[in-house]
Design brief:
Blueprint lengths: L1 E6 L4 H12 L3 E7 L10 H7 L4 E4 L3 H13 L3 E4 L6 H14 L3 E3 L5 H14 L4 E8 L9 H11 L22 E2 L5 E6 L5 E9 L2 E9 L6 H13 L3 E3 L6
C-alpha cells in the first residue's frame, strides 16, 4: 500500500486527487495538507512529523511549489508535482536534487492522457510545418501564464525545428503583447483566461497552402486522475527524475 499525502487538498484539483487516492486499492490517503483548513495539516513539515509518507502529491500554487519540492526531496519523500509555474532553472535544480538524494520526483505539466497525446502529436507534426503558434485557454483563477502544458508543448516541438516563423514579415505591435509571448524556437504562445473554461489548448501549424490544428479540451478534472495515479505508482518504484507524463505512457 502506497502512503500518500496530498498538498493543496482543499483546492478543486486537490479534492479530486484525494478522492482518487481513496478509491484506488493500491494507495492510502494518510495526510491532507492545506493552509486554508483548520481540520487538517497546514504544512508538509507538520504532516511529516506525524505521518509516514511515501509519496506527496502537490497541487498548490506556483509561489510555494519549489520550496515544497525541495523539502520533500531533502527529507526522503517522493513527490508528484501537478502545480505549474516552475522555471527551467528550478526544474533543473530539482532534477539535480532528486539525483543527489536518490529520491524520485515526477513533474507533469498535464496529467490528462489526451493532453499528453496532443503534445506528442504536435511534436510529430512540427517537423513537417514551417510555422506554429499555440493558444491555451484556462479558467480565470489560474495564476500562471502561459500554462505548463503550452510551455512543454513548445519545448517538444522545438526539438524538431529551430524556428517556426519562416517567412514572417517584420512586425510592430501597436498594442504590447498582442502577438503573445515568444517561446522556444520562436513559437508564439497566447494565453486566454475566462470563466467557463477548465483547460483547453490549440496548436496551430501552417505552411504554404495548408493549416493543421491539434486541439484538446478538458471538460472534467476527473480526466487527470488516471495520469496522477500512474505517476504515483511509477515514482513509488523508482528513484529517478521524470518531467512529462509522456515518458511513462
Amino acid at each position: 500500500m502506497i502512503r500518500i499525502a496530498v498538498c493543496g487538498a482543499m483546492g478543486k484539483m486537490g479534492k479530486e486527487v484525494c478522492q482518487a487516492v481513496t478509491d484506488c486499492p493500491d494507495t492510502e490517503l494518510t495526510a491532507k495538507i492545506d493552509i486554508a483548513s483548520e481540520s487538517m495539516y497546514h504544512t508538509i513539515e507538520e504532516a511529516h512529523r506525524v505521518e509516514d509518507i511515501d509519496v506527496l502529491i502537490d497541487f498548490t500554487q506556483p509561489a510555494s511549489i519549489f520550496e515544497n519540492a525541495k523539502f520533500c526531496l531533502n527529507n526522503g519523500i517522493k513527490i508528484v508535482i501537478g502545480t505549474t509555474g516552475l522555471t527551467d532553472e528550478q526544474i533543473n535544480e530539482l532534477e539535480n536534487l532528486s539525483k543527489e538524494k536518490s529520491t524520485g520526483c515526477f513533474i507533469a505539466p498535464n496529467f490528462s492522457t489526451g493532453a499528453v497525446l496532443m503534445m506528442m502529436f504536435s511534436k510529430l507534426a512540427a517537423k513537417y510545418f514551417d510555422n506554429a503558434e499555440i493558444v491555451e485557454f484556462h479558467h480565470n483563477q489560474k495564476k500562471d501564464a502561459p500554462s505548463g502544458t503550452a510551455i512543454k508543448t513548445a519545448n517538444l516541438m522545438a526539438e524538431a525545428k529551430s524556428d517556426f516563423t519562416k517567412g514572417n514579415c517584420p512586425e510592430k505591435e501597436t498594442i504590447e503583447g498582442s502577438r503573445g509571448g515568444t517561446s522556444y524556437s520562436n513559437i508564439h504562445i497566447h494565453s486566454v483566461r475566462m470563466p467557463g473554461y477548465i483547460a483547453s489548448q490549440e496548436v496551430i501549424l501552417g505552411s504554404s497552402g495548408q493549416i493543421m490544428t491539434i486541439r484538446h479540451d478538458t471538460m472534467d478534472r476527473k480526466c487527470y486522475m488516471q495520469g496522477v495515479l500512474l505517476a504515483v505508482k511509477y515514482v513509488y518504484n523508482k528513484n529517478s527524475f521524470v518531467y512529462g507524463l509522456e515518458n511513462i505512457l
